[in-house]
Design goal:
Layout (H helix, E strand, L loop, with lengths): L1 H5 L5 H11 L11 E6 L2 E6 L1 H7 L9 E6 L18 E3 L1 E6 L6 E6 L2 E4 H5 L7 E4 L15 E2 L8 H7 L5 E6 L2 E3 L7 E2 L2 E2 L3 H5 L5 E6 L3 E6 L9 H5 L5 E3 L4 H17 L6 E6 L3 H9 L5 E6 L7 H9 L4 E6 L5 H20 L7 E5 L24 H15 L6 E2 L8 E5 L9 H5 L5 E3 L5 E5 L8 H5 L5 E5 L1 E2 L2 H5 L1 E6 L2 E3 L6 E4 H11 L8 H6 L4 H14 L8
Parallel strand pairs: 2-3, 2-8, 3-4, 8-9, 17-18, 17-19, 19-20
Antiparallel strand pairs: 1-10, 5-6, 6-7, 11-16, 12-13, 14-15, 21-26, 22-25, 23-24, 24-27, 28-29
Length: about 550
């Protein structure tokens, strides 16, 4: 449908658009990793009597079994007797559903007993498919898990479900949409919890924080619940979670090639419009209201590309970036996309550029879209590095041509950009912050007691602030448009080194040794002069001194 529409235009921009879209090959993963669902065709329909009794016969011939769960205990079946229904009916309260296609556990209260209903109804541990006709839905995820159809709450539509459910028998493979690199994750370190952007951004309930303070926390993705929406990858500031189908870098390169081919065929003032593959009719409807220099970039999911890709398009010739969205999208997707667009627009505003160069175009209100056709200064060299480096490279290119009013600018709440301030008079240089920093934005000076900070690498995860035992660190949201100072390591705090009284080697901050000496005076384990004196020794000399003392005074071995 989309290709047919593009072929209808004979203007220079229309022909250039057709050549760019149809003539650019997008690189994707040829054999992505997958997960498999096993469904035997056991359906459970949950809801009010009058509704589920009418639905049951529609599935009885195609599926293995149909079980009915009536949630309206005061309205017995009137139109048909229980024996006429193609399946068992149970009058239940406090119904709970969890799982996914092929593995749904439905627990409920039957009279005085709490039961796993599938064991009672069909003699196995789980149902395969759930048709939920309750008004609010029994599973709360905004994007339903595979095999769960909350028709009662309005979406999907019953007609779609009647067509889809009968085919859900057998083995079904689904791609693992994401890669997770725990080494890059800013969620937790050494028992301290920090960034939770991905968990908050998932509308499918597939991401969770697991573990404890003793064992440590980590992000876990349930591949059976994951629907590949992309909001987690968009929200992740460190690229610990990345979209794998297709790879984000491949998508970005594809867009750059489309823009280059559009220009090569004589196209002018291109506007990139991201749109969803599953809504092709909406995509065509939107294009009919827009000029022929709007290039549709079709994605599996709208939030699967982030700010690095948006700004890459702007510095590679696009005049504007649009997102063809709907106000009926799940609230979490709208929130995450809206937050990212807000941050991106704040960058444009800092540079004196039109905020509408990055804009959400709602299919319900296309007349409100403001089009901008004047391109920005193009970047001569390709963007390289990881997600954050590509974004900042694009922003630095723009700031070199469109000077920001303020070198240090405010950013919206929650943005992963900023600095760390230290109340240095109270800092003991214990390096707890360094131990938990996931990006090495905070690191040691090396040759002397000191704490260094690189603003460009700070994602404002909060781990350092929470790990500091002296509470001297404070996060400060901001965008530093001075790329040199943003990328250079600056001294947060440094002080004189304490030198070992035995060998003269610098081994610790002088203030720390002084503080320990003062605190441990009078402690029963440090009740002699030699124990306190060892605090002023390096580790090697301290060990040698202990063994020398034990050798000279054997009776002290009884106290070891």
């Amino acid at each position: 449908m989309l290709k047919q529409y593009l072929e209808q235009h004979n203007t220079e921009n229309g022909q250039a658009r057709l050549a760019a879209i149809t003539g650019t090959v997008e690189l994707t993963n040829l054999i992505p990793p997958t997960v498999s669902y096993e469904s035997r065709g056991n359906l459970v329909i949950i809801g009010p009597n009058a509704i589920i009794a009418e639905l049951a016969p529609l599935f009885s011939e195609q599926l293995n079994s149909v079980t009915l769960v009536c949630t309206d205990l005061n309205a017995p079946v009137e139109s048909k007797s229980d024996t006429e229904l193609p399946g068992s009916i149970y009058y239940a309260s406090q119904v709970e559903v969890r799982g996914f296609l092929g593995a749904f556990e439905v627990s409920c209260q039957l009279e005085t007993n709490r039961v796993n209903l599938s064991q009672v109804a069909i003699g196995i541990n789980s149902f395969d498919i759930v048709l939920d006709m309750t008004q609010k839905g029994l599973m709360t995820e905004e994007v339903p898990v595979p095999g769960y159809y909350p028709v009662g709450r309005g979406y999907p539509k019953l007609a779609e479900v009647l067509e889809e459910i009968p085919g859900l028998k057998g083995t079904f493979d689904k791609p693992k949409y994401f890669r997770l690199d725990s080494d890059l994750c800013a969620h937790s370190s050494r028992g301290v919890k920090g960034c939770e952007r991905c968990v908050d951004a998932c509308p499918a309930g597939a991401l969770s924080s697991v573990g404890s303070e003793q064992t440590g926390h980590h992000i876990q993705i349930n591949p059976y619940l994951c629907q590949g929406v992309g909001t987690c990858a968009t929200s992740c500031p460190t690229e610990a979670i990345s979209y794998a189908l297709p790879d984000a870098q491949n998508t970005q390169n594809f867009i750059q090639r489309v823009l280059a081919k559009y220009e090569q065929h004589g196209g002018k003032q291109p506007i990139v419009m991201f749109c969803s593959e599953r809504h092709e009719s909406f995509n065509v409807m939107a294009l009919k209201t827009m000029p022929e220099n709007v290039l549709p970039i079709v994605l599996d999911e709208l939030p699967s590309v982030g700010m690095d890709t948006w700004f890459a398009a702007l510095v590679n010739g696009a005049s504007q970036v649009l997102f063809l969205a709907s106000r009926r999208m799940p609230a979490t997707i709208q929130r995450v996309l809206g937050q990212e667009v807000e941050v991106a627009r704040s960058f444009l505003s800092d540079l004196g550029l039109e905020e509408n160069r990055i804009q959400i175009a709602h299919i319900e209100a296309l007349e409100e879209v403001v089009l901008i056709e004047k391109p920005l200064v193009r970047k001569a060299t390709p963007l390289e590095g990881n997600k954050r480096q590509r974004l900042l490279s694009a922003l630095d290119h723009l700031s070199s041509h469109y000077l920001p009013d303020n070198v240090i600018a405010q950013v919206p709440a929650g943005a992963p950009f900023g600095s760390v301030e230290c109340a240095s008079q109270d800092c003991t240089l214990c390096m707890s912050c360094v131990a938990v920093c996931p990006t090495r934005a905070l690191h040691t000076k090396g040759d002397s007691p000191g704490l260094l900070f690189i603003e460009q690498d700070c994602v404002q995860c909060g781990l350092c602030e929470k790990a500091c035992p002296e509470n001297v660190l404070t996060l400060k949201l901001q965008m530093n448009w001075d790329s040199v100072s943003r990328q250079n390591a600056v001294v947060v705090h440094e002080e004189e080194a304490a030198c070992c009284i035995s060998c003269g080697t610098a081994f610790a901050p002088a203030s720390m040794i002084k503080m320990l000496t003062e605190k441990l005076q009078g402690n029963p384990h440090f009740n002699d002069e030699s124990s306190l004196r060892r605090l002023s020794m390096c580790e090697d000399c301290r060990v040698r001194d202990i063994f020398t003392d034990l050798s000279a005074h054997p009776e002290k071995q009884l106290n070891v």
